[in-house]
Design brief:
heterodimer, A: mainly alpha, B: 9 helices, 61% helix, 2% strand, globular
Chain lengths: 421, 215
């Protein structure tokens, strides 16, 4: 008797018991349950919720691995100086980098999953429903969108808050209004702002070494621009570094290349909506172009504090900061995003548009992506409502203008023929 | 012999729990969001509202038979405004710092929906003693929530209670702060109050399921 049968038998034994949801969660995590549908006809497909979630996690793993290497690279480069002749294998993909990244980032992943799943299990047992798979992706997203040195207890508090207030109070996976991963990040940002911004948190150990002779620092590009600097940017990081991701930032969001690949993977596996991604990219480009235009037509004087960010080339917004990561992995969340196709275009466009706008106009938050996505999460049902109402209205109009022609045949069933105009 | 008859006692006790103006009737939320960042301000606000609502209810109840119903709202407003000005002046005279923290929100007691609500719903139709109890009860129910929210927000937001450090000194890193604990900045901003109130409502409704409305 294999493990599979044993689990099926154990399930019968646990049925109706208090801990049944916890057991079922483990069971269905390992094997497809042997349950059949009870009523009606069902189409059974392989892409169940678990498969969907796992696909997203697969798309996230490259970002996580890259984040580990980058954590080490940023740390050692800040101490020893950035290499003059950068070589991928000599300076970046080294064991030292990976090891440092692993011991700093794996605890984040473990805490995120541990706390989040514990709360999910507790709620499932109390409420007596099945444990949902929703947290699998959230738990992976969270460590990727926070700075590498975030204290673990803060992460634990934020995850508890995000899962309870962001998801469970609405009824669990599938019912939440806000993206739980972003709720967690927003909580961290507003609760402990010193750990989420500035020039110390993005490089491992920079906080500990502050004030000592060995002090190191590393600013994100957006932070640098928001501080009013526009010169000297390209001496620090060139375009290739921004695109490939050898820059300081949150753990998993620096490499635009890997995010792009992950995004393509999600589009071709039909997990994420290409409409949202494309329209969000367009939205951010449009807003960026408006700002660039304002600078080109000299509406904005050079001493303005917005000048640095406004003159930043419009397409470069996509390769720095978390915009690409947010668009690919967070905006496309099927639960919190718009459901209708037309709604997805509007929803995505506004995410891109608002992200760049918040970036430029709010010096307090040099990164606006999470705020823009959370805001649009709130508006997504409204967008859907008007898209559907619009559709209903259009079809009613079509019906009104339709002429109904009597058919020559006598049979009553075919007596009417509707012709639309 | 009981001090109050059972009916009278319920006038005070009901608003404390199962008919709480904030958590059940969802009135007076604005001030609960605005001034609960500190426990002290919450307590002062609670006392002010207890005074205004207790006295106001009695005054309105005494005048209930001579107020023409067409202008009753104006009369009610005048009564509240007069009482609020008394509170404001007393605070300015004896607790100037606090009155600065509370700033405009003392004046805004006038617009606190609980007060007008109790005048309209209770004082206009009941005698002075009952109205007094009702006013005190509702204001207490409001105050209790304010104090609970203020307690959690001040404790986790600034690490103090009534201004006294509880967790140690955040700058010198003593007490709990030595272990790496930090104050939660989120608790200081008003949305946190909304969430704390939400959690209180959640707890209250899961303890007493009859409070849950039919969907």
């Amino acid at each position: 008797m294999g493990m599979k049968e044993k689990l099926h038998q154990l399930k019968l034994k646990y049925q109706g018991k208090k801990m049944a949801p916890a057991f079922n969660a483990l069971h269905t995590f390992l094997y497809t349950p042997n349950e059949t549908t009870h009523s009606g006809g069902h189409v059974r497909a392989v892409d169940d919720l678990k498969r969907t979630m796992n696909t997203v996690i697969m798309a996230l793993v490259p970002c996580l691995l890259f984040g580990m290497f980058n954590a080490g690279y940023q740390h050692y480069s800040a101490i020893n100086g950035f290499p003059a002749e950068f070589s991928l294998f000599e300076h970046f993909l080294t064991w030292d980098n990976f090891w440092l990244g692993a011991i700093t980032i794996l605890p984040l992943v473990i805490v995120s999953y541990g706390v989040g799943l514990l709360i999910e299990f507790i709620f499932a047992v109390i409420k007596g429903h099945e444990v949902e798979e929703g947290y699998l992706v959230t738990g992976m997203l969270v460590p990727l969108i926070i700075p590498v040195d975030t204290p673990l207890w803060m992460l634990a508090v934020a995850v508890a808050f995000g899962v309870v207030i962001g998801k469970e109070v609405f009824g669990g996976t599938g019912m939440n209004i806000l993206n739980p991963a972003l709720t967690i990040r927003a909580f961290l940002f507003f609760a402990y702002p010193t750990w989420m911004s500035g020039d110390k948190v993005w490089v491992h150990d920079a906080v500990n070494l502050a004030g000592t002779p060995d002090a190191i620092s590393g600013e994100t590009i957006l932070g640098y621009l928001a501080a009013g600097n526009s010169e000297g940017m390209y001496e620090k990081y060139d375009l290739a570094e921004m695109f490939f991701g050898f820059i300081p930032g949150s753990v998993g969001e620096t490499s635009t290349l890997l995010i792009l690949l992950g995004g393509l993977f999600l589009i071709f596996s039909k997990i994420a909506s290409w409409r949202i991604m494309l329209s969000a990219v367009i939205g951010s480009l449009v807003m960026g172009l408006i700002f660039n235009g304002a600078v080109a037509w000299e509406w904005i004087p050079e001493y303005s504090k917005f000048y640095g960010l406004m003159s930043f080339d419009f397409w470069k917004h996509l390769i720095v900061g978390g915009l690409a990561f947010g668009i690919v992995y967070m905006a496309t969340d099927p639960v919190t995003g718009s459901q209708t196709n037309k709604g997805k275009w509007i929803y995505g466009f506004l995410i891109g548009f608002l992200s760049v706008m918040i970036r430029v106009f709010n010096p307090g938050y040099p990164e606006g992506v999470f705020l823009a996505i959370l805001l649009m999460n709130v508006f997504a049902p409204t967008i859907d409502h008007y898209v559907i109402q619009g559709n209903v209205k259009r079809r009613l109009k079509r019906l009104k203008n339709a002429t109904i022609l009597p058919k020559p045949s006598d049979s009553k069933a075919e007596g009417l023929k509707v012709e639309t105009v | 012999m009981a001090l109050l008859s059972k009916k009278d006692a319920n006038l005070i006790l009901d608003p404390l729990a199962d008919n709480n103006p904030i958590t059940i009737q969802v009135l007076g939320i604005c001030s609960a969001l605005a001034i609960t960042a500190e426990l002290k301000a919450s307590i002062v606000m609670a006392i002010s509202v207890i005074f205004v609502l207790g006295v106001g209810n009695v005054v309105i109840s005494l005048m209930r038979n001579i107020i023409p119903s067409k202008i009753r709202i104006i009369v009610q407003l005048i009564v509240v405004a007069a009482l609020v000005i008394i509170v404001d002046q007393v605070l300015k005279a004896f607790a100037y710092e606090l009155s600065k923290t509370l700033s405009v929100f003392v004046g805004l007691i006038i617009t606190n929906c609980i007060i007008m609500g109790r005048f309209e719903a209770f004082a206009l139709g009941n005698g002075p003693w009952k109205s007094f109890l009702d006013g005190i009860g509702n204001a207490l129910g409001y105050g209790v929530i304010l104090i609970i929210v203020g307690f959690f927000r001040e404790l986790f937001g600034t690490g103090t209670l009534l201004g006294y450090p509880v967790f140690g000194d955040p700058i010198a890193k003593t007490g709990l702060y030595a272990t790496g604990y930090e104050n939660n900045g989120f608790m200081i901003i008003p949305p946190a109050a909304l969430i704390v109130i939400g959690v209180i409502i959640w707890v209250q409704r899961s303890r007493n399921r009859t409070l849950i409305e039919e969907a």
